[in-house]
Amino acid sequence: MTHTTGGRPGRRLTSYELATWRGFIETAEQLRTVLGGRLREDSGLSEGDYGVLLALSEAEGRRMRSSALATHIGWERSRLSHHLGRMERRGLVARRECAEDSRGAEILATTEGMSAFRRATVPHLRAVRELFLDALTPAQLDAVAEIVAALRDRLPPGP
Amino acid sequence: MTHTTGGRPGRRLTSYELATWRGFIETAEQLRTVLGGRLREDSGLSEGDYGVLLALSEAEGRRMRSSALATHIGWERSRLSHHLGRMERRGLVARRECAEDSRGAEILATTEGMSAFRRATVPHLRAVRELFLDALTPAQLDAVAEIVAALRDRLPPGP
DNA sequence: GCCATGTGATTGACACGTCAATCATGATGA
DNA sequence: TCATCATGATTGACGTGTCAATCACATGGC
């Protein structure tokens, strides 16, 4: 069942290797797109919105320092800042000055933001089950976990 | 080694399932980002540019109908149109009117475009080997191929 | 106290992607 | 022929993401 001819470090890629790579990256991208579309239909939230609101919903008092939020969801700060601007315009989050450090900002989810998040979460998790978990056998799911761990080891540390 | 408790259709996601899902989607995203950054450094091309030039480089006479190109690389037409506009401005491709159908456009890679593509290709494939293929055992690579096939079966057909 | 330096966060410019609308041309049928 | 509809492609508006620059405030050394 193994199509590779063993380790081939530094060699030209076989078409099998190339196709597997492309398949991996394209399938992940398509999954993101489809899930994102459903999320949008169900709740009007984007994947980014969902991630931000998820983090805030799990935080003490539904509020978090902007930098902590960025670290928590693994985003660059400028990305978060732009995104929060858009979410604020839509009334999903609010910014407050930070008491301890006047440079800082506290982000908090609005009632409307939490409501949209709750509306999103069940269908979103259902879609993850349907398109990802249900497509895989338990052994394949374990394989995904292993593979992800192996790939992460080679990846340079995040921002 | 199996962490799931067997098929759990319709149930709430376990934290293992959720973490595996998140790991999958985030790792793929990070791989794209890192590969994209290297590509940019090595050649000044984005991943999109690379895909377009790859398709053109393999086409008869380095030219292709816009719609054929879109289908070939799996992009929506408007996306391709915008992207070609940016590439044309940078001198990487050129648009010509199509002889057989005056509605159509022929896209062709310029000398400069092909030169950038050649500059990009070796380091790009090397990076794919380094960050993806070399990180996985042959059995894991086969597992990726299987998993990708299983996921694709559940995915709605493309644009 | 004051300045240099670091840190939290925002901004502007620009590339990328999607959606809906548009436009021109080809094909079809009364 | 001409009205209609389909098709190839582009456009505009807008959300998203990155990079480099900026701004305000904190902090530590003198």
TrEMBL record, chains A, B:
Q: Which GO terms describe its biological process?
A: response to stress
Q: Which InterPro entries match?
A: HTH_MarR-typ, MarR/SlyA-like, WH-like_DNA-bd_sf, WH_DNA-bd_sf
Which one of the record's GO molecular function terms can you name?
DNA-binding transcription factor activity
Tell me the SMART domains matching this sequence: HTH_MARR (SM00347)
- Cited SUPFAM superfamilies: Winged helix' DNA-binding domain
Outline the extent of the HTH marR-type domain. Answer: 1-153
Per its UniProt record, what Pfam families does this chain match?
MarR_2
Name-wise, this protein is: Transcriptional regulator, MarR family
